[in-house]
């Protein structure tokens, strides 16, 4: 196998058999996965995928979970047709790959999705969640997009936007204690800057013993010791959305 000397630092998870309850749609130039709740609602959540892209079953599982909790959930392809990262790719090429996929340059696509949610789905209150690369994108949007009500950034890569902390909307940051990509000193520094500059509600939470991707990429039934934290992270995410949407 490729990369045996360096196992995938972003564990892709093991929900490959999950098909999803929603459907794929075309929204102008963007493909997207949409799942709607059984009852009508004017609340929607944009789900921003990680480096493995919009088709990752684990991320669709989370979109379906949002729909089961009463939200229209949409996971657009924010790579806009460019290939998602694959675990079999050579990690030595990752930085070059990332240069063409900037978490701070998704504003055009977000505007298209907001218009779709408003005009086609009747959404009036819209939030955003994101994982890893998508978590960094959430922080970017919370700093500048006036049309979103709230955001949840799950292990968002802090270094992408570490110098900016004047959030426009209530934001919840979920981190893992044993995250190889986000050292705890970065989390401490982010919290310090938010205390100094942030005028809206925010929360940072570190989940003990967890690793990068735990909320959406780990199965609840694989490691019993992780299950309470996976479930707690998901519950906390839903509770935050319920509070502000």
General description of the model:
Residues 1-9 have low confidence and may be disordered. The chain has a single domain, classed as Rossmann fold. With 245 residues, it is an alpha/beta fold. It contains 7 helices and 8 strands. The protein has helices at 57-68, 94-99, 107-121, 133-144, 184-197, 214-217, 227-244; strands spanning 23-27, 30-35, 43-48, 72-76, 125-131, 151-154, 171-176, 202-207. The longest helix is centred in the last third of the chain and has 18 residues, at 227-244. The protein has an 8-stranded mixed beta sheet with strand order 1-2-4-3-5-6-7-8, with helices on both faces.
The H-and-E topology, N to C, reads as EEEHEHHEHEEHEHH
Distance between the termini: 45 Å
| Radius of gyration, CA atoms, in whole angstroms | 17 Å
Looking at this structure, what is the CATH superfamily? Answer: Alpha/Beta hydrolase fold, catalytic domain
- Low-confidence stretches are 1-9
The total tally of domains equals 1
Shape: globular
Instruction: Give a quick account of the main beta sheet: strands, pairing sense, barrel closure.
Output: 8 strands, mixed
Strand order of the largest sheet: 1-2-4-3-5-6-7-8
Number of strands: 8
CATH architecture group name: 3-Layer(aba) Sandwich
Stated plainly, the CATH topology is called Rossmann fold
Helix amount: 25-40%
Proportion of residues in β-strands: 15-25%
- Give the class from helix and strand content and strand pairing: alpha/beta
Number of helices: 7
Assign the CATH class.
Alpha Beta
Residue-averaged pLDDT, rounded? 91
